[in-house]
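User: Fold both of these, please.

Assistant: Here is the first one.
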Amino acid sequence: MKKFIEISEEALARLESGETIEGSMKKNPKSSKITFTAWNRKAPKHRRKDELIHQLESGWVKESAEKYKLFISVYKKLGLARIMNIIDREAKEAKVALFDKELIECV
C-alpha cells in the first residue's frame, strides 16, 4: 500500500539538506490525504533581568521594564498586628527607596 504525504517546499528543502524536521502528520478524513505540518519553533524572547533597587529586611524592591515590584515575606507566627506593622514599615522603606532612585536619576 502506498500513501502519499503532502509536504511544503520549505520542509522538503530542509529534509534534503540533512536537517530533521519536527511537526505533525494528520489524515484528512474526507480526502484520505496525509498532510505534514512542520512546527515553526522560535527561540524564546530574552528579557532583561529585574534591577534590584533596594534590599528590604524581609524582601526587596525591583524594577522591571514595565513595573516596580515589591516583595515582602513575613512569618505567620508573628501574629496579625506585628505582620501589619512590618508590612507598613517595609512599604514606607520601599517608597523612600523609589523616591531616592528618582532623585538620583534627575541629577
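And the second sequence with its predicted structure:
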Amino acid sequence: MELLKRNENNLIFFIFFIIIFLGFFLCFIGGYGSDEDTIPMLHVFDSLLNGGRFVSSRFTGNPVAELGIGFLSYYFGSFAANLATYLFLLLGLIFFFLTFSKDKSLSKIIFFLFFCLTSPIIFFDNLEPIDYSWAFFFFSCGVFFLSKKLFEIAVVMFAFAIGTRINYVLFVLFVILFYHFKDDISLPRRINLFICSFIFGGLFYLPIWFDNSFGLSWLTAARPIDQGIFGLLARFSYKIYITLGYVSAFFIFFFFFKNLNKIKLFSNLNVLLVLCFGNLLIFLWIPAEFSYLQLFLIIVLFLIFNLNNKTAFYLICLGNLISWIIFINPINIQYVDNSYCGPKNAISANFKIKVEKGFFIKYLDSREKIKCWVDDKSEKGIKIINGDAIRMN
C-alpha cells in the first residue's frame, strides 16, 4: 500500500494484529454480553428445541440470528456465539471491500479492516451475541455475488440477510436496483431478483405472521417518540455524531466535503449513497441503538479510506482510539432510571461537557450486566452468567 511509508506500514500491521487478537480474547472472556436482546434470542432456540413452542425475541424477530446464536450458545457457550459474530464482521468487511474497491491487494484489505476496527461502534458492538454483523455478512456476500453476476447465490445471501434483520429488505432493494454493472442488466431482471430475495427472506417470518393471526402489527417496533419530533431529531443527530466518533466525526466531515470532487469519481458511488440514505431513513424512524447505523458508518469509512489521504487516515484512527480510553461527552442525558440495570430511556438532555470512561472501559465494566436479565439462582441462569453452554444435561 502506497498510502504510508514502510515503517509506518509495519506499525499499522502490528497494531492491527493486536486489535484482531484482542477481539478474539474479548470474545473468550466477554460472556453473553450486555445487550438485553441477547437473552430473548437464546430463549427462542431453547423454546423450539425443548418444547416446540414458538416465541419471538423482539417485535419482528430475527429468525436466522435467533437460531444461529441460540444453537451456538446452547451447545458450545458464549465464546462460540461471540466468535461467530466477530468473524462475520471481519468477513463481511472483506466481502464489502472486495466488491466496491478497485485495489483489492492484501495490504489494502488489512488497512481497511484496521480503519474500521478502530471504530468502537463497529468493534465492541460485534463482540457479543447480537445480530448486526450476521445481517451485514450475508448482505456483503450477496452484493459480492451480485457483482459477479452469480445471481442465484446472491438471492440466497440476500434472503439470509433479510431473515436476520428485516430492515435489510430496503438495503437489498436499493443495491439490486442501483448497482452498476459493466454490461447492464434490465430493470425487469433486477425486479425479479428483488422479488425472489423478498419472498425467500420473508419465509423466515411466516411463523411470526401466523402467530400474530396474519396481522402486521409485529412489523412496527416501539419508537422513542415521547419527546415529539424535536426529541426524535435530537436523538437522531446526537447518535449519528457519536457513531461517527465524538472526535473523528469532525475529521470525517472535513475530509469528506473537502474531497467531494474525488469522491464523485468512485465507482458505484450512487448505490453507496443510496444505501447510506436508506440507513439514515430507518434510523430517523427509530433512533435507538448506535449499531442500527453500522452499514452507514462502514460506507462512510470506506469512502474516506479510498481517498488515500494519509492525514485523514491517521487523524480518524487516532480519534477513534482515543475514544476507546476516554469519552468527552458534550451532552448530559437524563434517563428515566439511572441505575445500572435501568432501561436507557432518555427523558431530557442539556449541553454540559463531562469526561466519561471510554468505550473499551465501558465494555469491560458491562460484562456483569447480563445479571440484570437472568435468574441468578437457577441452574440455567448461572450458566448464562458464567458464559457456559446453556444446555441442561
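The radius of gyration is 21 Å.
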